[in-house]
Amino acid sequence: MVLPEVEELKKYTFDLGPIRPPSEGGSASLLIRATSNCPWNLCTFCSSYKGKRFVYRSVEEVKKDIDSAKAIADLLKALSNKLGGMDWVARIIDPLFLYGKEFEELSPDEMRNYENIALVYRWLAAGARAVFLQDANTLIMRTNELTEVLQHIRRSFPTVLRITSYARAKTLAHKPLEDLIKIRQAGLTRLHVGLESGDDEVLTYIKKGVSSEEQIEAGQRSKKAGFELSEYWMPGVGGRRLWEQHAKNTARVLNEINPDYIRSRPFTPRPNTPLYEAYLKGGFELTTPHERLRELKLMVSELNVTSRVCFDHFMNSWRRADGAFLFKQDYEGYRFPEEKALVLGLIEEGLRLDESTHISAETLAKMPYI
Ligand code: SF4
Questions:
Q1: Ligand 1 pocket residue status of 39, Cβ below 6 Å
Q2: What pTM, to 2 d.p., does this model score?
């Protein structure tokens, strides 16, 4: 059967960045790259965009990408109607069928086109409900340009209920509240902010480029503007020297913000970062799994929030006696304050087990980061 839509599909590509939060991954979100890389790029633990230049993409470029994603979506829907459902379309999304080649033989352009088609297909099959704006700090865009992009997404994909993005606290803290409200009203619904720590000494040490006061201001402004807010904190990033003040001040800052979600991303040294070099040279002492649990216990004890506290990443690698993860790893986590006692009980359970039951940060450092 001749399928002109298949030839047409091969004409469209759009840009993709390297990362997104796990909760926006898989089939959950269509990824649209609003800016490229990180405008700060100095955090000493982060390797995500190292060596890559920040690019402020033009609205025209971003809208062109949205149009390409829409063209692919429309063609996949047309194929679904013609073939009798999305399950049949899945058979077409295969390098052999599309390009007459094995996956490993694809050219860079074919690979990009294939990734785009596969992403849009998974997203459509899952209901096409969310869009994630990549890369590290979409809020750095001029307000009128970001709202134009958001409106274009809303017009192009009427089924979308949620548009989300990463944002730097520094930018949020200094963006006028009226601008944040405009952006929220144009359709951006959820912000993912890398808090890492609420302790000023730790923030300076890791070159986060933001103070704890600015973190609070950023979080409170985002909430006031009506965003759903996820804050990511990093157990272990204070090392053995600063763990206690890291835990106490992180709880203090989170209490002031009271975000919707608090997500734990334990520190793991990553090659090609200054903190990895410091760790190799003995200038940064990693904490052990039990020490990290004690840090977690202090932080959780001092939390006074109505947030969901989540351990939705495999770097939260503490185990139970049967080898299962100590904390559940879903995206909704534990409801606070109702489940605070439950989380503290799990921490005690982890502390009672021999330390070798858990996976150390040294071992995690050798695993690929997803
Ligand atoms: S702001 Fe975020 S993306 Fe940029 S260097 Fe820091 S952690 Fe990495």
A1: no
A2: 0.94
